[in-house]
């Protein structure tokens, strides 16, 4: 089994912090020659790096995941994120975090995902929404399998006659915004995946010294494993090695499509539990 030594792991963790858990094709090839191993083994060897970004104040159970995009041949780390003063339903699982990370960075076809532990039922359902769900390989420490093996007789987008899939959805056309937003936030809104509710939504978190973080809404045919834009953005913050309490957040903007706004309450609740001084700015978008 290919493994990195503690010093290499430390270096990789520092590197991953700077890129929010992104490893390019060139970096993966270099690491593969360092370990002299297959790509599958390398993705598994990166799991401890992914798990080091876990924030699990409730369970103390650190989970890491690495998603691989076939098109760009790059990898994206993910880790579980728990909120100590919020409902457990807000927890972001490592698989969601890695897939969200890949999606926000333009990945189109996740062909395999390595995970430190077997995916829970919730994550199996979340992954079933992917464009690649029928051929997605799942690599666990002691078992390599397929999502179709782990989730037979599944309920997915096809049951609701939804032709779109997560990572392969239409670009949302926007007519106007209630106030100005950055072009990046606009682009994230246009790439949000909300085929069931049409509640397209995205979040921008501006920090004083650590840059800007984005999140998008990702729905699921079963509704429950949907990922809110705030969870999506906070997961990105965690992959930069930050928490919202220590990131010097100066502004949070939530943009949602007009008439369907249902992300406001959850955004406020999460923020209030950390810092009551930050009031999110709300913007609505008129769809074209
Ligand atoms: Zn899970």
Structure commentary:
- The protein has helices at residues 6-19, 25-35, 39-45, 47-51, 94-104, 121-127, 147-150, 183-190, 229-239, 264-274; strands at 22-23, 64-69, 74-79, 110-115, 137-140, 143-146, 174-177, 201-207, 212-216, 249-257, 281-287.
- The chain is an alpha+beta fold.
- The protein has two domains: 6-156, Cytidine Deaminase, domain 2; 174-287, Cytidine Deaminase, domain 2.
- A six-stranded mixed β-sheet has the order 1-3-2-4-5-6. The chain has a five-stranded mixed β-sheet with strand order 7-11-10-8-9, with helices on both faces.
- Strand 10, helix 10 and strand 11 form a beta-alpha-beta unit.
- Residues 93, 95, 119-120, 122-123 line the site of zinc ion.
- Zinc ion (ZN) is lined by residues 93, 95, 119-120, 122-123.
- It comes from Pseudoalteromonas holothuriae.
- Substrate binds at residues 80-82.
- Its cofactor is Zn(2+).
- Homodimer.
% residues in beta strands: 15-25%
Give the topology string: H per helix, E per strand: HEHHHEEHEHEEHEHEEHEHE
**CATH architecture group name of the largest domain:** 3-Layer(aba) Sandwich
**What are the bound molecules?**
zinc ion
| Number of domain units | 2
CATH superfamily of the largest domain: Cytidine Deaminase, domain 2
Q: Report mean pLDDT, rounded to a whole number.
A: 94
What is the CATH top level name of the largest domain?
Alpha Beta
The side-by-side strand order for the widest beta sheet comes to: 1-3-2-4-5-6
Number of helices: 10
- Write down the overall geometry: globular
Largest sheet: 6 strands, mixed
Measure the end-to-end span.
53 Å
Instruction: Report the count of strand segments.
Output: 11
What is the CATH topology of the largest domain?
Cytidine Deaminase, domain 2
User: Ranges with pLDDT <50 over ≥5 residues?
Assistant: none
Protein name: Cytidine deaminase
Enzyme class: hydrolase
EC number: 3.5.4.5
Domain CMP/dCMP-type deaminase: 38-158, 176-288
């Amino acid at each position: 089994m290919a493994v990195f030594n503690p010093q290499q792991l430390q270096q990789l963790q520092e590197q991953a912090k700077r890129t929010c858990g992104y490893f390019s094709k060139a970096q993966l090839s270099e690491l593969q020659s360092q370990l002299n191993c297959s790509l599958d083994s390398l993705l598994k060897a990166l799991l401890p790096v992914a798990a080091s970004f876990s924030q699990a104040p409730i369970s103390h159970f650190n989970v890491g995941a690495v998603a691989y995009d076939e098109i760009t041949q790059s990898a994206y780390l993910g880790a579980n994120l728990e909120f100590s003063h919020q409902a457990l339903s807000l927890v972001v699982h490592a698989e969601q975090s890695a897939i969200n990370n890949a999606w926000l960075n333009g990945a189109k076809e996740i062909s395999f995902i390595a995970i430190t532990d077997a995916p829970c039922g919730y994550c199996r359902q979340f992954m079933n929404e992917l464009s690649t769900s029928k051929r997605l390989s799942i690599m666990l420490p002691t078992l390599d399998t397929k999502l179709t093996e782990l989730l037979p007789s599944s309920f997915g987008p096809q049951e609701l006659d939804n032709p779109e899939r997560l990572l392969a959805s239409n670009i949302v056309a926007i007519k106007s915004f209630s106030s100005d937003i950055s072009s990046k936030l606009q682009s994230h809104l246009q790439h949000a995946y909300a085929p069931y509710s049409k509640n397209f939504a995205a979040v921008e978190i501006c920090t004083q010294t650590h840059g800007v973080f984005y999140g998008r809404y990702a729905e699921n045919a079963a509704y429950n494993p949907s990922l809110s834009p705030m969870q999506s953005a906070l997961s990105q913050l965690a992959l930069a090695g930050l928490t919202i309490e220590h990131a010097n957040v100066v502004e949070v903007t939530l943009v949602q499509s007009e008439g369907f706004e249902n992300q406001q309450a959850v955004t406020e609740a999460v923020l209030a539990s950390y810092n009551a001084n930050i009031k999110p700015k709300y913007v609505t978008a008129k769809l074209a």
